UniProtKB/TrEMBL annotation:
InterPro entries the UniProt entry points to: Competence_ComEA_HhH, Endo/Exo/Phosphatase_dom_1, Hlx-hairpin-Hlx_DNA-bd_motif, RuvA_2-like, Soluble_ligand-bd
Coiled-coil intervals: none
UniProt domain Helix-hairpin-helix DNA-binding motif class: residue ranges: 159-178, 189-208
SMART domains on file: HhH1
Protein name: Competence protein CelA
Keywords: Membrane, Transmembrane, Transmembrane helix
Lineage of source species: Bacteria, Bacillati, Bacillota, Bacilli, Lactobacillales
Pfam families: HHH_3, SLBB
GO biological process, one term: protein secretion by the type II secretion system
Gene3D superfamilies: Outer membrane lipoprotein wza domain like (3.10.560.10), Tex RuvX-like domain-like (1.10.150.310)
Originating organism: Companilactobacillus bobalius DSM 19674
Superkingdom, natural source: Bacteria
GO cellular component: type II protein secretion system complex
């Protein structure tokens, strides 16, 4: 009997040890999986956030590369819609004129180099047939590099008018005062509305001025 009890006790202890081992394995496995899942869920959002930041940064760089740069050009003279236009960088005169509605019927195309590239803040003046070429500052459309600097009466300051024969400081101030009160001049003939400038004075000034 004693031997049977010892055998029974031995088997019972073995079962308890085995059960404890199984429980330990189950608990250990659970904590291992839980820890791994928690670590993965913590790392993945950080990686995903970093990836999103990289994609946003790359997108901004690509948009800057793809976005065409624009320049500002003033178009005056014998065009259908004179004014200031935003055009793509490295555009040529022909493209700018198309933006301005095209040439007017009386435009003298022989004096214009339509293939010339334009520059930022450049003014393009299209002469009418029979008119002498007038090349405003920063403009050389006809190839005449010896032309005298032309003053734009819509942007000129008192100092700019110093280069104009026939307009002194007082008359220059009158031109600017008229422009500030009534808006920009649409044609050179509008200068006759300024006190002290008549038709005769205008005929002497027209080769030195532009709008």
């Amino acid at each position: 009997m004693i031997e049977m009890e010892e055998v029974y006790q031995y088997v019972r202890n073995k079962k308890i040890g085995l059960l404890v081992s199984i429980v330990a394995l189950v608990v250990g496995g659970y904590f291992f999986l839980f820890h791994k899942t928690t670590l993965t869920s913590t790392v993945e959002p950080k990686q995903e956030l970093a990836t999103q930041k990289d994609e946003i940064k790359k997108s901004k760089i690509d948009s800057k590369i793809k976005e065409p740069q624009t320049i500002v050009v003033d178009v005056q003279g014998a065009v259908k819609k004179s004014g200031v236009y935003h055009v793509k960088d490295k555009a040529i005169v022909q493209e700018v004129i198309q933006t301005a509605g095209g040439f007017a019927a009386n435009a003298d195309l022989r004096q214009i180099n339509q293939a010339k590239r334009v520059a930022d803040q450049m003014q393009i003046y299209i002469p009418v047939k029979g008119e002498k070429t007038r090349a405003p500052a920063n403009t050389n459309l006809s190839g005449d590099t010896q032309g005298k600097k032309i003053v734009n009466i819509n942007t000129a300051t008192v100092d700019d008018f110093k280069n104009v024969t026939g307009i002194g400081p007082k008359k220059a101030q009158k031109v600017i005062a008229y422009r500030e009160e009534h808006g920009q001049f649409k044609t050179l003939h509008d200068l006759t509305n300024v006190s002290g400038i008549g038709e005769k004075s205008l005929s002497k000034l027209k080769d030195q001025l532009t709008v």
